[in-house]
Amino acid sequence: MSHQVRRLKVFLTLVVFFALGSRAGTADTPQPFEIMTTAQLQAVMQSKPYKFLIIDSRNPEEFQDVHLPGAVNIPEKKFDEHVGQLPADKETRLIFYCNGLKCGKSKRSATKASTLGYRYLFVYEEGMPVWEEAGLPIVPGPSYEAKIETTKISPEDLRRLIASKRNDFVIVDVRDQSEYAEGHIPGAINIPVANFSSRSGELDKDKTIIVSCNAGGRSYKAYRKLMSLAYDKYYQALFADWKAAGFEVEK
């Protein structure tokens, strides 16, 4: 298939997809918006089949830290104060995003936009964390690469937590599957850091998340992703420290 034919197929697919916005709020689609994937948003930004505006529904501090190219910041909690940033043309496609699969700000913002008469509404549900994880273009702020201090849980405290058999926490080993299979902290599940954000839907936001790797590099990255995904309770644990303490290793 030639390059021109592939571009035409992408363009036609986007035309059909963007036309779906006119169905928003019907009996077939009770929500007033359509869900957009990372691949679809990437194609839209490259092909520009229609006039559109990307709206970051997160708070200003998050937007200043990093955001999508061309996005404007209309915080969901202050939506009414910033409606002047919305285009006058109600036919413009509006694409909202926030902090991933369990962030509701973008959906609430899109719903508010529907009450103002905008018909072509889309929510990029995977949001900023998955976009970053995919290595796609971003607009970083001056503090984007700033080092953060993680909150670590000691092997002794983690062992006591596991022994308590409470169900309000989950240990996530973020190493590769082969490393996980060779040995991990008892009860830990495996979500490699490379696709941690895209699989964040598997993690209950009401639970404490404890990310673990061997020496701290990958769990640090996962820890930062939890921050961007707006999780409330999370810790970092080091598997090397767990083994050094002589505690049980599960295989």
Description:
This protein is an alpha/beta fold and 251 residues long. The protein has helices at residues 3-19, 38-47, 60-65, 105-115, 127-133, 155-163, 177-182, 217-228, 239-244; strands at 34-36, 52-56, 66-67, 72-73, 93-97, 121-124, 139-140, 169-173, 189-190, 208-213, 234-238. A 5-stranded parallel sheet has the order 1-6-5-2-4. Strands 9-8-10-11 form a 4-stranded parallel sheet. Helix 1 (3-19) packs across helix 2 (38-47). The radius of gyration is 21 Å and the shape is elongated. The N and C termini lie far apart (47 Å).
Task: Offer a quick outline of the entry.
The protein is of the alpha/beta class. It contains nine helices and eleven strands.
Spell out the key features of this protein:
alpha/beta, 33% helix, Oxidized Rhodanese, domain 1, 9 helices, five-stranded parallel β-sheet, 251 residues
Sequence-ordered SSE layout with sheet pairings:
Elements: H1 3-19, E1 34-36, H2 38-47, E2 52-56, H3 60-65, E3 66-67, E4 72-73, E5 93-97, H4 105-115, E6 121-124, H5 127-133, E7 139-140, H6 155-163, E8 169-173, H7 177-182, E9 189-190, E10 208-213, H8 217-228, E11 234-238, H9 239-244
Parallel strand pairs: 1-6, 2-4, 2-5, 5-6, 8-9, 8-10, 10-11
Antiparallel strand pairs: 3-7
Helix pairs in contact: 1-2
